[in-house]
């Protein structure tokens, strides 16, 4: 595996020295035991020589590899990520690093790992805060769901995890198109996730406040009982990114929806 990974990087970059100077591949490492690395991590670490940036990730399980409370999980995870960063610098000094956090928890009744829980949303936020504390770029997973189909549970869990990841300021968010605790992927889910990402991205952009955007001039010009529809100012913002345009969501009246076939998403 070690030789294969390094040969792939050399093929992409046209030689070992070229690949060593380029950081276009990610080495994402998880932990099978609490605060312990296994041999597979050392194999992955060796690829850092071949133009890879290191990303410490959490794939452990609450109540097993981690304590049962969230603060305890953060403590163990933080130690694992920071120690992984140290190892990456010993392998190749100056290797770019990412503070990874693939947050999961555990449902004791079902004896199953879950990723769409509110606790994992909280951990996304906490992980982003830790990354900012250390001035390290951050990564997390989302939108995620434990539902096995494209139903309402899928929607609320996806939106919860995506919103928490985006609004926490995470730099890299992955897992679009995946559901069933990350064990299934579909093109339909990818399209739905793209719609949700557009909504959340617009929320993150917020409202721009400036002398131009508060529009006092046009408000005075139109005045009481006036109409803003014919104003150039209205046309300007109609064609801007001020208002998010859905690709899937229905916004028509009921009669039009029925006329178009009454289809759901």
UniProtKB/TrEMBL annotation:
The keyword Glycosyltransferase does not apply. Gene3D superfamilies: Trimethylamine methyltransferase-like. GO terms for molecular function: methyltransferase activity. Keywords: Methyltransferase, Transferase. One of its GO terms (biological process) is methylation. Belongs to the trimethylamine methyltransferase family. This is Uncharacterized protein. The lineage of its organism: unclassified sequences, metagenomes, ecological metagenomes.
């Amino acid at each position: 595996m070690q030789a294969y990974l390094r040969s792939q990087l050399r093929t992409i970059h046209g030689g070992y020295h070229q690949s060593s100077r380029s950081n276009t591949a990610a080495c994402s490492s998880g932990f099978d035991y609490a605060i312990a690395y296994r041999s597979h991590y050392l194999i992955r670490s060796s690829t850092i020589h071949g133009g890879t940036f290191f990303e410490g990730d959490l794939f452990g399980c609450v109540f097993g590899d981690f304590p049962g409370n969230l603060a305890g999980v953060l403590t163990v995870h933080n130690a694992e990520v920071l120690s992984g960063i140290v190892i990456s610098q010993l392998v190749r000094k100056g290797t770019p690093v990412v503070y990874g956090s693939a947050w999961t928890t555990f449902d004791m009744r079902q004896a199953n790992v879950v990723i769409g829980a509110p606790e994992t949303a909280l951990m996304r936020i906490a992980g982003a805060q830790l990354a900012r504390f250390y001035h390290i770029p951050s990564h997390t997973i989302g939108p995620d769901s434990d539902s096995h189909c494209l139903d309402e549970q899928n929607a609320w869990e996806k939106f919860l995890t995506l919103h928490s990841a985006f609004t926490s300021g995470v730099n890299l968010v992955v897992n679009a198109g995946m559901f069933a605790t990350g064990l299934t992927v579909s093109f339909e889910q990818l399209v739905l996730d793209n719609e949700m990402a557009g909504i959340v991205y617009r929320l993150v952009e917020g409202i721009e406040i400036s002398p131009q955007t508060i529009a006092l001039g046009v408000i005075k010009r139109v005045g009481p009982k006036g109409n803003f529809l014919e104003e150039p100012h209205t046309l300007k913002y109609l064609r801007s990114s001020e208002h998010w345009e859905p690709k899937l969501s229905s916004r028509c009246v009921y009669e039009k929806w029925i006329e178009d076939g009454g289809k759901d998403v």
